[in-house]
Amino acid sequence: MPVYHAPVADTLFVMNDVLGLERYNNLPAFAEVSPDVLEAVLGEAGRFAEDVFFPLNQSGDREGCHRAEDGSVTTPKGYREAYARFREAGWGGLSAEAAYGGQGLPHTLAAAVNEFLSSANMAFAMYPGLTRGAIAALQLHGTDEQKQLYLPKMVDGIWTGTMNLTEPHCGTDLGLLRTKAVPEGDGSYRITGQKIFISAGEHDLSDNIIHLVLARIEGSPEGVKGISLFVVPKFLPDASGEAGARNSLSCGSIEEKMGIHANATCVMNYDGATGWLVGEADKGLRAMFTMMNEARLGVGVQGLAISEIAYQNAVAYARERIQGRSLSGTKAPDKKADPIIVHPDVRRMLMTIRAINEAGRALILWTALKGDLFHLSDDAKEREAADDWMGLMTPVIKGVLTDKGFDNTVMAQQVFGGHGYIAEWGMEQYVRDARIAQIYEGANGIQALDLVGRKLALNNGRAIQAFFAEVGAFCEAHRADERMAPFTKGLKKGLNDLQAATLWLMGNAMTKPDNAGAASTDYMHLFGLVALGYMWGQMAKAANDKLAGGETSDTAFLEAKLATGRFFMDRIMPESSAHLARISSGSTSTMALDAASF
Amino acid sequence: MPVYHAPVADTLFVMNDVLGLERYNNLPAFAEVSPDVLEAVLGEAGRFAEDVFFPLNQSGDREGCHRAEDGSVTTPKGYREAYARFREAGWGGLSAEAAYGGQGLPHTLAAAVNEFLSSANMAFAMYPGLTRGAIAALQLHGTDEQKQLYLPKMVDGIWTGTMNLTEPHCGTDLGLLRTKAVPEGDGSYRITGQKIFISAGEHDLSDNIIHLVLARIEGSPEGVKGISLFVVPKFLPDASGEAGARNSLSCGSIEEKMGIHANATCVMNYDGATGWLVGEADKGLRAMFTMMNEARLGVGVQGLAISEIAYQNAVAYARERIQGRSLSGTKAPDKKADPIIVHPDVRRMLMTIRAINEAGRALILWTALKGDLFHLSDDAKEREAADDWMGLMTPVIKGVLTDKGFDNTVMAQQVFGGHGYIAEWGMEQYVRDARIAQIYEGANGIQALDLVGRKLALNNGRAIQAFFAEVGAFCEAHRADERMAPFTKGLKKGLNDLQAATLWLMGNAMTKPDNAGAASTDYMHLFGLVALGYMWGQMAKAANDKLAGGETSDTAFLEAKLATGRFFMDRIMPESSAHLARISSGSTSTMALDAASF
């Protein structure tokens, strides 16, 4: 019963009219990406998501993954076939390097495709998603031999990847990890230990699973300075590079969890498994962060993706379901009641979700473009600025878009009334699925600490100062433009609150670090409001310019865009003042109780 | 693995020190309720919840209810035995009239007991909860004969009750209902139609199930003015008043839903079932509202109850789980890391939940006491004021405490990181269970409309004016008291915002009703902040007085109470300004899009 239509038109608006991707056609990955090609690829990806991934979403949730006594894991019915079609169509290697069989297209495009796939079937999209993270880590930190051995097969998708960080007693605090690596003398290591919460840790979709595993080499220091990264394949590659002998690792169990049932979340046992070092010894955390940053942006995309499909279904229901009459007079006199979309409180919910989704999509694509520029630009200043933006926005995209994404999904479920609570309507699955995105790849509180404790002060605050200057200049540049006034006014107010909060932190967190900790989540959300508000400013400008140029046939789309942006400024941006008030209240009452008094 | 301890001490603080229940010992129900008796009853209820209901919560969620082909429904293992113990102990009749076998104790006490039972096992507590609603409706609207026939058995619990409102095509808009009632000529009616989402509609806990069913008598007007209430027992009472012949009604299926799996949510088919009118013909909605108001307060209690058990488990986990070091220096040098309760962002979550729960408990008990006074007081003015307070607070308690309750439960789950997503830890069940409370008994958007569209204007705003006067006078009376300053300052700010929002509505909603609709949810939450803030003011006063009197041995409890209240004012009350800003932005951007443009 649920519906899904990939938001191709909105994605094209951001890519063409807001980002102006054509400007970058001097860069290799962008050379072929004309607006026509973009439209064709996104259209094709949208149809693939709708036709192949989406029909398996509800059935996959119900069936889940099953582990047999031999430790093998079966994915739900239809998943093997659908994954084969995914591989054949080459979606996994969209933005991978051509040298390894990829299509070498921009990450910006891959991010959009990832949104469609995650909307259609988040649990399924995680299998290739984790592979992409493992590819990124091997590409940056692996030896040439490792790259030649693993990357072509992982880009193809015939081998998949995982990341193994968490252990029963440690997740956030990886310094505590106990998994051991003992050198064999031949360049390989024996890996022993238990990892938990390993998404896609074992399954039947691919011929081999390439585990990237954090472990401590015997004799290395305790804490985070003694952690190394290893590649530990399920089947050891033989002389010809094909999957050979079974490695001594196995899935001990799969977790019974709230959602994403179609993705196998495994306890992985390494019993003297053979692995090879990736990157330098004891520098594993750095390599892992390559995967993690890739993964965190991907999780932000999941937040948007579930919010989007939840929104679409809520809209469809609100148009169909008749109940009560409009406060401003009957709207459907031929029916016994009006469709509930006439009710302002239903509108409030739909508009809230929509306003966050459209800005979230723009923020993700804007940031993905920075990622492309960081890799491709020949201008060192541009690369630095792109890197600064990504560092700042990674925790914001992960933390804010998944928190808002979950809230939005709950709101969309609410539009259904009692039917939202019933499994067959599909909404409660979206809520259960969306919930994990706030937790994994660093719980959102950790994202907030990364932003406040690390990213703000980096390079003497260069990134945040550049952000303030950019947003401030945007407000200033369009201050006199009457069509832009609703946007610049709200954005400026949010920016002022964010700057005040930043100043407060500078003055109060050095002397009392608890002030930073107690402020962090509010600061992250305040930052998110301004970043999303800035996207609304940029989208409004693009829409106004297009309307003023009279060159468009899509007036209704652009007018709806502007109305949605005004709603954001009226209804969502005002949260900034509450965040500022909380932040500047300090940590005294937060920390007042003894642990025993709770 | 989950834990639960009934919050008896906190409940006693509210009853004895804030409400001063002893003042009312001139009223019949209160005569026996000395502080000693209160403590004994609450202690016993707490132990019963902990020992009998709680151990079946997780297993009941996993097993769920099962319908056999003959339409009979089996509750999870252990539920029949536990229900029998519940009956024997007389918990169902705690506040029921002695004339029908009840204990005649105050509703205030029953509300507290209901919190404990709902924390321990919400799905289970719903069976007697629905029976209480049905008892209330029969007591107020039934004939003497009906009361004699049904009430003693329902108070005993050997018969249970349900409410049947919703049909597939109508929930909120009951005017659309189609279930028909045809008079038989002997005073009975034949009821035909389908009802959905009927909680406890069929099960194996009781000897009979007394359905209260809304239906339209043949020939009655369309819309809400043609709805009547009927009592339709599963087994027709025989001449001796015992369960006799099977009535023509059956459970067609049970819904597969997100949570509260241990409660059977039934599709009920009435195929010419025999029923009797309750109250006047065509006046069924009024009678149903008696049940509904009772039920809405009960649902508010569920919001608090799940938030409370989620909080307790999050605290236990945060004390145990070690991860990272405190920002202000190592706190557990003997361990490899500090317990996560040292981290300000974890504290922020725990304190937020705690601050809302403690005030929510006070607000529920304060309102339940008004309910007792409305029934028992011999002062007409006091009865009127009590009724006004209840009318105003019913939607606030239902809407705000369930919205906040769900948010709190999600927050408590977040404290667990990845473990929160895994079924065995129990947290994800609390989230799934808490979700329904925002939806049933009138989705929270309907509560907001009830408050804004009905309750505010009733009797020329008498209730809201009295509330403003009471809270304003409280702030004024304690303005000069330095110990009260943190409380009166925050409360006064919230009250000002609420008054401004009320004025805005008065000026803008008459001419444009969409302004009221678009404001309603924010207004309800703004109202909730002030109501909870007022409870904090009252609790702070009681705590300060007790500390100043030096008469207490429980200084730590009282100091923690004050610290938690300060946190509320620092961190939660500031949301009021965002609500006011949203409300006064009007409905233009909310209503701007065509339905087709979504």
Automatic annotation (TrEMBL), chains A, B:
Location of the Acyl-CoA dehydrogenase/oxidase N-terminal domain:
80-157
Reaction(s) this enzyme catalyzes, per UniProt: 3-(methylsulfanyl)propanoyl-CoA + oxidized [electron-transfer flavoprotein] + H(+) = 3-(methylsulfanyl)acryloyl-CoA + reduced [electron-transfer flavoprotein]
Q: Which SUPFAM superfamilies match?
A: Acyl-CoA dehydrogenase C-terminal domain-like, Acyl-CoA dehydrogenase NM domain-like
Query: What residues does the Acetyl-CoA dehydrogenase-like C-terminal domain cover?
Result: 467-594
Acyl-CoA dehydrogenase/oxidase C-terminal domain residues are 282-451
Instruction: Report the superkingdom from the record.
Output: Bacteria
Identify the EC number(s): 1.3.99.41
Q: Where is the Acyl-CoA oxidase/dehydrogenase middle domain?
A: 163-271
Q: Which UniProt keywords apply?
A: FAD, Flavoprotein, Oxidoreductase
Its EC top class is: oxidoreductase
> Which InterPro entries does the entry link to?
Acyl-CoA_dh-like_C_dom, Acyl-CoA_Oxase/DH_mid-dom, Acyl-CoA_Oxase/DH_mid-dom_sf, AcylCo_DH-like_C, AcylCo_DH/oxidase_C, AcylCoA_DH/ox_N, AcylCoA_DH/ox_N_sf, AcylCoA_DH/oxidase_NM_dom_sf
Q: Which cofactor does it need?
A: FAD
A Pfam family the protein falls into: Acyl-CoA_dh_M
The Gene Ontology terms for molecular function here are: flavin adenine dinucleotide binding; oxidoreductase activity, acting on the CH-CH group of donors
Q: Could you say which protein family the record assigns here?
A: Belongs to the acyl-CoA dehydrogenase family.
- In UniProt terms, what function does this protein have? Involved in the assimilation of dimethylsulphoniopropionate (DMSP), an important compound in the fixation of carbon in marine phytoplankton, by mediating the conversion of 3-(methylthio)propanoyl-CoA (MMPA-CoA) to 3-(methylthio)acryloyl-CoA (MTA-CoA).
Q: What is this protein called?
A: 3-methylmercaptopropionyl-CoA dehydrogenase
Q: Native species of this protein?
A: Aureimonas ureilytica
